[in-house]
């Protein structure tokens, strides 16, 4: 029953976040909270100091004329949208500025933790069942590595796997972040779709990574690991592996329905020649089990020759089977650690591979973070320096393949990488350089 003029006067004392919240009360409050006069005042005072004539008594007449001109012929909510757009753009600029600082060791942004803290970024998953009902899962555990972050969700109230249709992974940031106060979970938030996965027939259509006494692990591309209880055939946990390359862009710059698409590469003038091949590439490789690191290594001056280009791939040999001087020992027993509210465990003979391949200019060319499983090889390695079983671990996506060969040394209880080969898709190379391999 309160007059609209009185409500507008009250609303004029609210900040932007409070205005957005009060607009959710009912239809009348929503219309009043969209008042252009209130939002123009917020817009001018916070983003355009030169418009501070609102507070200058000596220019009161000019203020009135400016306000009238800005409000004339504008639809309700126009200045609210302008305010949010400008604030969001300024926020993205602050965060992306931190991404420009690169680690000379990996070639990737080195201030990701600071950027995540400044942005108030978090990640959530939304499970949708076959009836269209959505289940939101928040509060993940984070594990930071040199080139990736593992995001783990677990709980006791997961929906039944049989009724689920899709899983969506989102980056979530406050719509109007305030660095002086922590983000409010119930405040207005912005969603950025990172990936969408189909869960129908998950156990039949997904890659089996491994299992222990309690759970079985299934991999969904890109970089998602789903743990299923063996007894109940229900979800125990979900782990997303996010590579630092474009991590913040995918988590912030996308929309709630459309994923962020990186701009195409602009190749520099170089001596790229399809008759020669790639040259001076660099690789940074991490193998870990979420909580423990098994291998962290960098490899320089990788190249391929014309004869190494076949079947749609360019081959980069990183570790040669016959050159035991470059063979790599693995620290610890390979496995992926997991945990829930009650149980925890370690699934052996699998790991998370973080691969960062840089081109000759130091730009990230091919990057991923994904779970990989090991298999006992049926072929003998032919290496007389090592007496033990041989294992292989392969990964493939649309941009290339990775083939790794291990040898298990029973005496020292350790794995040795005796071969590591990258196969880069010619389509990826042609798109990157504008050439024709």
From TrEMBL:
Residues 1-16 form the signal peptide. Residues 1-42 form the F-box domain. The keyword Signal applies. It holds the Pfam family F-box-like. It comes from the Eukaryota. GO terms for cellular component: SCF ubiquitin ligase complex. Keywords: Signal. Transmembrane segments: none annotated. This is FBX15 protein. It comes from Motacilla alba.
């Amino acid at each position: 029953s309160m007059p609209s003029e009185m409500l507008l006067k009250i609303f004029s004392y609210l900040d932007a976040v409070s205005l957005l919240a009060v607009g959710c009360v009912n239809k009348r409050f929503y219309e009043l909270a969209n008042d252009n006069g209130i939002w123009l005042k917020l817009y001018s005072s916070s983003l355009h100091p030169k418009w501070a004539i609102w507070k200058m008594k000596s220019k009161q007449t000019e203020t009135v004329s400016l306000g009238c001109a800005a409000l004339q012929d504008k639809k309700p909510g126009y200045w609210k949208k302008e305010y949010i757009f400008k604030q969001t753009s300024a926020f993205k600029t602050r965060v992306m500025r931190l991404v420009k600082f690169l680690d000379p060791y990996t070639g990737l942004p080195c201030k990701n933790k600071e950027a995540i803290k400044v942005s108030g970024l978090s990640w959530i998953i939304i499970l949708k069942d076959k009836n269209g009902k959505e289940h939101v899962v928040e509060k993940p555990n984070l594990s930071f590595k040199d080139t990736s972050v593992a995001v783990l969700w677990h709980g006791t109230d997961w929906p039944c796997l049989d009724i689920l249709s899709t899983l969506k992974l989102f980056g979530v940031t406050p719509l109007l972040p305030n660095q002086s106060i922590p983000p409010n979970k119930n405040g207005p938030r912005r969603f950025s779709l990172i990936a969408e996965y189909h869960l129908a027939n998950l156990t039949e259509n997904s890659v089996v990574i491994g299992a222990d006494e309690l759970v079985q692990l299934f991999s969904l591309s890109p970089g998602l690991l789903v743990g299923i209880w063996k007894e109940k055939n229900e979800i125990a946990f979900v782990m997303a592996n996010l590579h630092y390359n474009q991590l913040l862009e995918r988590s912030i710059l996308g929309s709630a329905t459309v994923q962020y698409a990186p701009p195409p590469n602009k190749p520099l003038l170089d001596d790229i020649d399809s008759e020669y091949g790639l040259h001076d590439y660099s690789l940074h490789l991490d193998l870990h089990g979420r909580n423990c690191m098994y291998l962290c290594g960098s490899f320089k001056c990788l190249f391929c020759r014309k004869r190494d280009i076949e079947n749609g791939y360019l081959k980069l040999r990183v570790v040669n089977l016959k050159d035991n001087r470059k063979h790599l020992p693995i620290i610890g027993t390979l496995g992926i650690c997991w945990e829930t509210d009650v149980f925890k465990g370690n699934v052996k003979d699998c790991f998370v591979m973080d691969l960062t391949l840089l081109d000759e200019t130091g730009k990230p060319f091919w990057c991923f973070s994904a779970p990989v499983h090991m298999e006992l090889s049926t072929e003998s390695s032919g290496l007389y320096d090592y007496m033990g079983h041989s294992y292989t671990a392969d990964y493939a996506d649309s941009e290339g393949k990775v083939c790794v060969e291990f040898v298990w040394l029973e005496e020292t209880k350790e794995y040795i990488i005796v071969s590591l080969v990258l196969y880069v898709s010619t389509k990826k190379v042609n798109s990157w350089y504008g050439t024709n391999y």
